[in-house]
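Example S7 (structure tokens).
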């Protein structure tokens, strides 16, 4: 009792509903700002990874062509057809004939393609052909021109 007035002391444990609500609102605001930035950063990272793999493959294809009289891996004649098995074998194995290679350890996967087609290549032999992005494979190679592209989307075929 203080000055003749009876007071009731209460021990306060925990948070009020209003305090919890305010914390949740603040966390939601922070998440609304941070999540789009993080997902954009993840997308940029995947694009960067894809471009890095394209540069690696293109440089190794150029090296292969320089060492094999202008032939692409798996080609018998310049501009001729290539199949995926022969292409990958030529890129990943040391040649018993000339000792060149391997140019890559394994065929890299396109980070934008899910599943077992991420490291597959669509081969075309038409000089005027361009990838559509709908091929369903990770990569695209024009054996007539030597152009190597990503083909997971129309946007990425420009890389």
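Recovered sequence:
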């Amino acid at each position: 009792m203080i000055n003749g007035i009876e007071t009731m002391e209460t021990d306060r444990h925990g948070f009020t509903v209003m305090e919890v609500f305010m914390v949740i609102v603040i966390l939601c605001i922070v998440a609304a700002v941070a999540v789009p930035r993080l997902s954009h950063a993840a997308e940029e990272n995947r694009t960067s990874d894809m471009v890095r793999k394209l540069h690696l493959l293109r440089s190794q294809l150029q090296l292969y062509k320089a060492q094999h009289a202008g032939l692409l891996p798996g080609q018998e004649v310049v501009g001729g057809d290539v199949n995926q098995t022969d292409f990958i074998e030529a890129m990943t194995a040391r040649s018993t004939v000339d000792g060149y290679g391997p140019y890559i350890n394994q065929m890299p996967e396109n980070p934008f393609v899910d599943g077992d087609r991420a490291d597959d290549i669509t081969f075309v032999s038409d000089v005027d052909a361009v990838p559509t992005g709908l091929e369903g494979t990770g990569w695209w190679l024009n054996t007539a021109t030597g152009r190597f592209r990503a083909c997971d989307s129309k946007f990425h075929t420009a890389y």
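Notes on this example. The two ends are 81 Å apart (CA to CA).
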